[in-house]
């Protein structure tokens, strides 16, 4: 069993009346977490029921709110109990359906899982405003991955392990950047099995989420778009060029990109600008939620060996760490590029100050600040600057800015300090 850091948060939320909604990519471990929560409650003597909308025999209980309430009452009675509903996105108008259930003020706590299509099609945010809390479960983080690989021997002192075991850390990092963090991929021991698993995840996404749930008609173009975005991770995505390459309308490209975002395949980063005339166009940059899926789309799954090839994947890793680091704040991730060619990978903006961040996988022997970063510092005078590295660590200053060369595994800790 792979331990997930979100499990304790989910356990704590069992005490709250509001509905618990677990979302995230297909095969990221949502159902496993729900079963673990059910087991925890069962051991504590609580009453539980587990329903799955992917199972034909469970579907008819959702024909009406009355039917569902009767089924719950049959299984756990009319007193306190816990109701687990897997794959809630299968229910048409799920948001309104659940709102009606919640407003009955029943003695039941609801814990549900749903894919991104739930948000896209049913607008659950609006329907359940004030009635739910969303927990986004991504594929395994690097920390979760290494804890599992090391049998949890260093669970309470993982950064110490990274600091002392640099060669092992590098090997784990390159394995993680090659294969990603889908739990079934990590659990598979042989390369052939890992590839079989990621192939199933990829095809299942196209056939079930894209085709069935999202109604994508041109699956060939949709699949090609995924490959193109994978190939230009960390680079500008020009919708007009994508439209021309795929021979589909710009509106369709925008729709497909939105689908990929809403189903937790890619995340979008918009440019940071103060002066529109001087900054480059508003074309975004996209990053993948999981490096393994990105590599598979490019037919490079497990086949990345050279240090130079890891550059954009490392940048993608830093994006995911940043996304997790700021998820409970009003801060936003941007990038910075000018017509002069200056560029900074990430800019965190909280409305009052900015923090520029560069991701550099290649080894450092001494602190080096790029010309682009120097340009940004000269223009915006940020109080802190981060250069994220694979292992190098040092502090220096440039003008009034503190420059922190920080290993990726210390980014969250140092960023919030």
Key structural traits:
Arc Repressor Mutant, subunit A; alpha/beta; globular; Rossmann fold; Trna Endonuclease, Chain: A, domain 1; 417 residues; single chain
Model description:
With 417 residues, the protein is an alpha/beta fold. The chain folds into 3 domains: 6-136, P-loop containing nucleotide triphosphate hydrolases (Rossmann fold), CATH 3.40.50.300; 142-304, Orthogonal Bundle (Arc Repressor Mutant, subunit A), CATH 1.10.10; 317-415, Trna Endonuclease, Chain: A, domain 1 (3-Layer(aba) Sandwich), CATH 3.40.1350. It contains 19 helices and 13 strands. The chain has helices at 6-13, 30-43, 56-59, 65-76, 94-102, 116-122, 124-127, 142-149, 158-164, 166-179, 183-187, 191-213, 219-231, 239-246, 250-262, 291-297, 311-325, 371-380, 411-415; strands spanning 19-23, 48-52, 81-86, 108-114, 132-136, 266-271, 285-288, 332-337, 343-349, 354-359, 384-389, 394-398, 401-407. The strands form 2 sheets. It has an 8-stranded mixed β-sheet with strand order 7-6-8-9-10-11-13-12, with helices on both faces. It has a 5-stranded parallel β-sheet with strand order 2-3-4-1-5, sandwiched between helices. The radius of gyration is 23 Å and the shape is globular. The two termini are 32 Å apart. The model has no long low-confidence stretch (mean pLDDT 92).
């Amino acid at each position: 069993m792979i331990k997930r850091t979100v499990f304790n948060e989910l356990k704590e939320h069992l005490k709250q009346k509001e509905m618990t909604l677990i979302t995230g990519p297909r095969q990221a471990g949502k159902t496993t977490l729900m079963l673990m929560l059910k087991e925890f409650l069962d051991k504590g003597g609580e009453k539980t029921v587990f329903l799955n909308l992917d199972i034909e025999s469970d579907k008819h209980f959702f024909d009406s709110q009355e039917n569902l309430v009767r089924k719950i009452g049959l299984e756990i009675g009319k007193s306190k109990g816990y109701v687990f509903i897997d794959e809630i996105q299968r229910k048409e108008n799920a948001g309104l359906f659940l709102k009606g259930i919640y407003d009955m003020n029943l003695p039941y706590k609801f814990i549900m899982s749903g894919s991104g299509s739930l948000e896209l099609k049913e607008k659950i945010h609006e329907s359940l405003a004030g009635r739910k809390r969303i927990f986004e479960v991504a594929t395994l983080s690097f920390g979760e991955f290494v804890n599992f690989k090391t049998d949890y021997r260093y669970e309470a002192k993982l950064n110490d392990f990274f600091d002392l075991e640099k060669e092992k850390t590098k090997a784990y990092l390159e394995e993680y950047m090659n294969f990603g963090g889908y739990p079934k991929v990590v659990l598979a021991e042989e390369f052939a099995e890992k590839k079989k698993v990621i192939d199933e995840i990829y095809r299942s996404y196209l056939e079930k989420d894209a085709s069935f749930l999202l109604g994508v008609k041109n699956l060939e173009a949709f699949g090609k778009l995924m490959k193109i975005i994978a190939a230009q991770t960390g680079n500008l995505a020009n919708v007009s060029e994508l439209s021309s390459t795929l021979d589909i309308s710009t509106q369709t490209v925008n729709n497909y990109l939105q689908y990929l975002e809403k189903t937790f395949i890619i995340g979008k980063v918009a440019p940071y600008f103060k002066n529109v005339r001087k900054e480059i166009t508003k074309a975004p940059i996209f990053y993948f939620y999981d490096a393994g899926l990105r590599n598979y789309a490019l037919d490079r799954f497990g086949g990345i060996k050279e240090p130079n090839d890891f550059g954009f994947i490392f940048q993608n890793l830093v994006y995911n760490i940043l996304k997790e680091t700021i998820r409970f704040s009003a801060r936003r991730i941007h990038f910075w590029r000018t017509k002069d060619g200056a560029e900074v990978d990430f800019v965190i903006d909280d409305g009052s100050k900015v923090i520029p961040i560069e991701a550099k996988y290649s080894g450092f022997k001494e602190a080096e600040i790029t010309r682009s970063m120097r340009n940004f510092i000269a223009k915006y005078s940020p109080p802190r600057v981060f250069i994220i590295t694979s292992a190098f660590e040092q502090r220096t200053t440039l003008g009034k800015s503190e420059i922190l060369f920080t290993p990726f595994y210390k980014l969250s800790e140092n960023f919030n300090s």
